[in-house]
Amino acid sequence: FGGRLKITTASDNGNLVISVADSGIGMDEKVMAKIFDAFYTTKDSDQGTGLGLTIVKNIVSAHGGTIEVRSELGAGTEFTVRLPKPAADR
Protein backbone atom coordinates (compact mmCIF):
# COMPACT_ATOMS: atom_id res chain seq x y z
CA PHE A 1 0.00 0.00 0.00
CA GLY A 2 1.06 3.61 0.28
CA GLY A 3 0.59 6.43 -2.13
CA ARG A 4 -1.59 9.47 -1.80
CA LEU A 5 -5.29 10.08 -1.45
CA LYS A 6 -6.65 13.53 -2.27
CA ILE A 7 -10.22 14.60 -1.53
CA THR A 8 -11.53 17.94 -2.78
CA THR A 9 -14.88 19.68 -2.68
CA ALA A 10 -16.17 22.58 -4.73
CA SER A 11 -19.28 24.38 -5.88
CA ASP A 12 -19.88 24.67 -9.63
CA ASN A 13 -22.95 25.90 -11.54
CA GLY A 14 -25.45 24.85 -8.86
CA ASN A 15 -23.71 21.57 -8.14
CA LEU A 16 -21.67 20.26 -5.26
CA VAL A 17 -18.55 18.57 -6.63
CA ILE A 18 -16.65 15.94 -4.65
CA SER A 19 -13.48 14.47 -6.07
CA VAL A 20 -11.51 11.53 -4.69
CA ALA A 21 -8.17 10.80 -6.35
CA ASP A 22 -5.40 8.35 -5.56
CA SER A 23 -1.88 7.78 -6.82
CA GLY A 24 -2.40 4.03 -7.11
CA ILE A 25 -1.94 1.62 -9.98
CA GLY A 26 -4.82 2.94 -12.07
CA MET A 27 -7.11 0.96 -14.37
CA ASP A 28 -7.01 0.07 -18.04
CA GLU A 29 -9.94 0.79 -20.38
CA LYS A 30 -11.24 -2.78 -20.18
CA VAL A 31 -11.61 -2.59 -16.40
CA MET A 32 -12.99 0.96 -16.47
CA ALA A 33 -15.74 -0.12 -18.87
CA LYS A 34 -17.09 -2.55 -16.24
CA ILE A 35 -16.48 -0.92 -12.84
CA PHE A 36 -20.10 0.16 -12.35
CA ASP A 37 -21.49 -3.26 -13.38
CA ALA A 38 -23.03 -5.26 -10.55
CA PHE A 39 -20.83 -8.11 -9.31
CA TYR A 40 -17.83 -7.06 -11.38
CA THR A 41 -14.64 -7.18 -9.33
CA THR A 42 -10.93 -7.57 -9.88
CA LYS A 43 -10.48 -8.83 -6.33
CA ASP A 44 -10.46 -12.37 -5.01
CA SER A 45 -13.91 -13.75 -4.14
CA ASP A 46 -13.23 -13.45 -0.40
CA GLN A 47 -12.38 -9.71 -0.66
CA GLY A 48 -15.52 -8.21 -2.13
CA THR A 49 -18.75 -8.76 -4.00
CA GLY A 50 -18.39 -6.21 -6.78
CA LEU A 51 -21.37 -4.18 -5.58
CA GLY A 52 -19.71 -1.13 -4.01
CA LEU A 53 -19.43 1.12 -7.06
CA THR A 54 -22.80 -0.06 -8.39
CA ILE A 55 -24.44 1.03 -5.13
CA VAL A 56 -22.57 4.35 -5.14
CA LYS A 57 -23.68 5.08 -8.71
CA ASN A 58 -27.30 4.24 -7.89
CA ILE A 59 -27.31 6.49 -4.81
CA VAL A 60 -25.74 9.38 -6.71
CA SER A 61 -28.22 8.93 -9.59
CA ALA A 62 -31.17 8.76 -7.18
CA HIS A 63 -30.17 12.21 -5.93
CA GLY A 64 -29.99 13.63 -9.46
CA GLY A 65 -26.21 13.51 -9.65
CA THR A 66 -23.50 11.98 -11.77
CA ILE A 67 -20.28 10.09 -11.13
CA GLU A 68 -17.34 10.09 -13.50
CA VAL A 69 -14.03 8.26 -13.41
CA ARG A 70 -10.66 9.01 -14.96
CA SER A 71 -7.78 6.63 -14.64
CA GLU A 72 -4.33 6.07 -16.03
CA LEU A 73 -2.29 2.92 -15.56
CA GLY A 74 0.59 3.60 -13.21
CA ALA A 75 -0.69 7.07 -12.30
CA GLY A 76 -3.89 6.58 -10.30
CA THR A 77 -7.62 7.08 -10.47
CA GLU A 78 -10.01 9.96 -9.82
CA PHE A 79 -13.75 9.74 -9.15
CA THR A 80 -15.80 12.92 -9.43
CA VAL A 81 -19.32 13.10 -8.01
CA ARG A 82 -21.61 16.00 -8.92
CA LEU A 83 -24.78 16.51 -6.90
CA PRO A 84 -27.31 19.28 -7.43
CA LYS A 85 -27.37 21.81 -4.58
CA PRO A 86 -30.67 22.16 -2.74
CA ALA A 87 -32.65 25.10 -4.15
CA ALA A 88 -32.19 27.12 -0.93
CA ASP A 89 -28.37 26.93 -1.32
CA ARG A 90 -28.11 28.00 -4.98
What can you see in these coordinates?
- The protein has a four-stranded antiparallel beta sheet, with helices on one face.
- It is globular.
- The chain has 90 residues and is α+β, with helices and mostly antiparallel strands.
- It is 17% helix and 36% strand.
- It has helices spanning 29-32, 52-62, and strands spanning 5-12, 15-22, 66-72, 76-84.
Short account of what is shown:
The chain has 90 residues and is α+β, with helices and mostly antiparallel strands. The chain is 17% helix and 36% strand.
General form:
globular
**Would you list the SSEs in sequence order as H and E?**
EEHHEE
State the helical fraction. Answer: 10-25%
Separation, N- and C-terminal Cα atoms: 40 Å
Residue share in β-strands: 35-45%
- Average per-residue pLDDT, rounded, comes to 91
Task: Please tally the helical runs, counting DSSP H or I stretches of 4 or more residues.
Answer: 2
Q: Biggest sheet: strands, sense, closure?
A: 4 strands, antiparallel
Low-confidence sequence ranges = none
How many beta-strand segments?
Answer: 4
Largest beta sheet: strand ordering = 1-2-4-3
Which structural class do you get from the secondary structure elements?
alpha+beta
Give me the Rg, rounded: 15 Å
Oligomer category:
single chain
